[in-house]
Design a protein that fits this description.
The chain is α+β, with helices and mostly antiparallel strands. It is built from six helices and 14 strands. Helix content is 24%, strand content 29%.
Length: 258
């Protein structure tokens, strides 16, 4: 499952992108996402454990953790906790507490479901979601603050100059080994345990999540994916092709003035 939005040509490393939006923003301006989505079962799977939610202000994708019970239930619970968030938050404030609160709601629902049905005990999911906040004009361009919550190995990319740049860091075993200097990035891409995650939303557990503020400029394209869109693995090629096809056709969740 992935979402995309049409993009401009800013450098992803520029403060306008990775900064916290501390500079003055002239506005407000009514901005929202125009979005597109696609889901693909992939190769060798009997069921789809992805869940997603999209609106003019919230985009979310979750992927049930493989090898565990009821991944599709866990991902639906995680995404469900974010449903309608835009109508219950002051988007002129710091967005991170609101996202953290919804993660806590998701955890409580996972725990409750596991207590009521022991067959789903231990179910887990990834979650990557963005919430649009205050908007206006900054440095001569329209834009909006965007809150990001992320856990697991689902991903958020930005498309710049026809290339995808990853904005999230995988909470996976290979990435952990990369961070420790025990593995190269290239080796991580082909690691036999590349799908083993070390942090998730899981019934009975309380792993940390990443909470970040970004600045999204009008017309720039984001891509939220349940899997790595750049993988060359044959096992994941079908889902990867679906993400790339969405990107190529420019079906989008583009930040636009309403």
């Amino acid at each position: 499952m992935c979402f995309s939005n049409e993009g401009g040509g800013a450098d992803v490393r520029h403060p306008d992108w990775m900064g916290r939006g501390d500079g003055a923003m002239i506005g407000p301006v009514d901005l929202g996402f125009d979005f597109g989505a696609v889901s693909d079962l992939g190769v060798g799977r009997a069921n789809n454990e992805d869940s997603a939610y999209c609106s003019g202000a919230v985009l979310a994708v979750a992927d049930g953790v493989g090898g565990g019970p009821a991944g599709e239930v866990a991902s639906a619970i995680a995404v469900g906790a974010l449903r309608g968030l835009e109508g219950h938050v002051d988007r002129s404030d710091d967005l991170r507490p609101a996202l953290h609160e919804r993660v806590a709601i998701a955890r409580a629902r996972l725990d409750s479901a596991a207590r009521g049905d022991h067959s789903v005990a231990g179910m887990a999911t990834t979650l990557t979601a963005v919430l649009m906040g205050r908007s206006g004009k900054r440095h001569g361009r329209y834009g909006a603050e965007v809150g990001l919550v992320h856990v697991g190995d689902s991903r958020l990319y930005v498309s710049l100059g026809g290339q995808l740049f990853q904005l999230t860091r995988d909470h996976s075993l290979p990435q952990l080994l990369v961070d420790r200097g025990q593995l190269s990035a290239t080796e991580a891409e082909n690691h036999p345990q590349r799908s083993m995650i070390v942090r998730s939303l899981q019934a009975g557990a309380h792993d940390d999540v990443d909470l970040v503020l970004l600045l999204l400029l009008e017309g720039q394209r984001l891509l939220l994916c349940a899997t790595d869109c750049r993988t060359t693995s044959k096992r994941r090629a079908s889902a990867s092709c679906s993400c790339r096809e969405l990107h190529r056709k420019r079906q989008k969740s583009c930040l636009t003035r309403h």
